[in-house]
Design a protein that fits this description.
With 405 residues, this protein is mostly helical. The chain has 16 helices and no strands. The termini are far apart.
Length: 405
């Protein structure tokens, strides 16, 4: 009798915990949906960004319905099979919508057929397998049968493969985005895409964790569920912040610059322009390399890199060469424009600190082209491994050592 009472108590405890989790998930998804719906439309300027918001909103609505149905029907308490059917039916399209929303931002709306239809295809195949399993086992729909368990596990594998495909597409796209940023801006702009990198990893982790959550019933399920809630909150919240920040416009400017350089490369390949002695239009000939180096050295001698906000097209114009030649010259030396400018400015900062030890970091930053002292300190430490203040202290220490008798 005592054993039976203990089992009842354990069942009631699990029931309450599941209900609390499901209720929390419903509230969280509804709040995220409201946040997406009330984003200021005028601050979302591009058509594909608005479309991405609609996809993300649809995904949070699906998840809200999913957890609400789970809470109302108690399918999770009935058994794993009953719950898994609903999970696959709702989580596959929701994950697809989130993945496609990010891909729209990355590729500015230019999606391939595979990008558009991989998610719907996986959902259709999974639902068809579940339907066939339910019709052929001769038992009620929510029965736990071998056919149904096999169909559910196959659907979970397809879900992970789908998310793996989108993770690969996201990774390829974000590499191209970073390349465009590094070939355009004169400062490190990786921070504005960091949320996207974390979100891509998060979506892949979801693909790995969700099957664990939907097929398990122990304490591990609770930990996985809370991790899923956190990842979903981070994804949607960061997505909202990105859309309403200046980041999309800055990204668009960098990608437009990359597209124009691609067009110049295409013109070279088509013979409309030629670099003397160039066998491959993506590689500058030794003669052209020498011309570029001479122009760059003259530009460096007059301190052209000390201008604040020196975008790559402006630098190329000031040097007197094309954007394509400047970028290709840097690439042949294994450099990106952002990195190159940072190195030049840090070298100038070192010279100024040695020549004017009484200058403040603000003055050094302004002279060398850094936007402020914080950027100077962060860039200086990244390249030199120490802060400007520590560099000054080392100079003073070395100087005193050399002057001692």
């Amino acid at each position: 009798m005592a054993c039976f009472s203990q089992k009842q108590s354990t069942f009631a405890s699990v029931m309450i915990t599941l209900q609390m989790m499901q209720f929390t998930a419903v509230v969280l998804m509804l709040l995220l949906t409201v946040k997406l719906l009330f984003l200021r439309e005028r601050r979302i300027k591009s058509r594909h960004a608005r479309q991405a918001r609609r996809l993300m909103t649809t995904g949070t609505v699906l998840l809200s319905l999913h957890f609400a149905i789970q809470l109302k029907t108690g399918l999770r308490v009935m058994g794993i099979t009953q719950s898994v059917m609903l999970n696959l039916a709702m989580l596959i399209p929701a994950s697809y919508l989130f993945a496609r929303a990010i891909l729209l931002l990355q590729r500015r709306g230019n999606l391939s057929l595979a990008d558009r239809w991989t998610g719907p295809a996986v959902w259709t195949v999974t639902m068809a397998m579940l339907a066939v399993a339910a019709l052929t086992d001769g038992k009620p729909l929510l029965s736990d049968t071998l056919q149904m368990r096999l169909a559910e596990r196959t659907g979970a594998v397809l879900y992970m493969l789908m998310q793996g495909y989108y993770t690969w597409r996201h990774s390829v796209s974000i590499v191209a985005m970073h390349r465009a940023l590094h070939d355009y801006y004169d400062r490190d702009t990786d921070g504005m895409l960091r949320w996207m990198q974390y979100s891509i990893v998060g979506l892949m982790l979801l693909a790995l964790m969700v099957p664990v959550a939907i097929f398990s019933s122990g304490p591990g399920m609770l930990a996985v569920a809370f991790a899923v809630y956190f990842l979903m909150f981070y994804l949607v919240d960061s997505f909202c912040f990105y859309l309403t920040s200046p980041a999309p416009e800055r990204m668009q400017a960098a990608e437009q610059n990359a597209a124009e350089m691609e067009e110049e490369l295409e013109n070279l390949n088509n013979g409309k322009q030629t670099d003397a002695g160039t066998a491959d239009a993506a590689v500058l000939s030794p003669e052209v390399m020498s011309e570029v180096e001479q122009a760059v050295e003259a530009w460096k001698a007059r301190g052209g890199y000390c201008q604040t906000g020196l975008l790559q097209p402006l630098a190329a114009q000031d040097i007197g060469i094309s954007r394509y030649r400047l970028t290709t010259w840097l690439h042949q030396q294994g450099l990106k424009y952002t990195e190159w400018i940072a190195q030049l400015r840090v070298e100038e900062a070192k010279r100024i600190i040695a020549a004017h030890p009484d200058w403040s970091n603000d003055a050094v930053a302004q002279h060398c082209g850094f936007t402020d002292r914080t950027v100077l300190q962060r860039t200086f430490k990244r390249i030199e491994g120490i802060t400007p203040q520590k560099y000054l202290e080392n100079l003073a220490s070395n100087s005193s050592t050399h002057t001692q008798p």
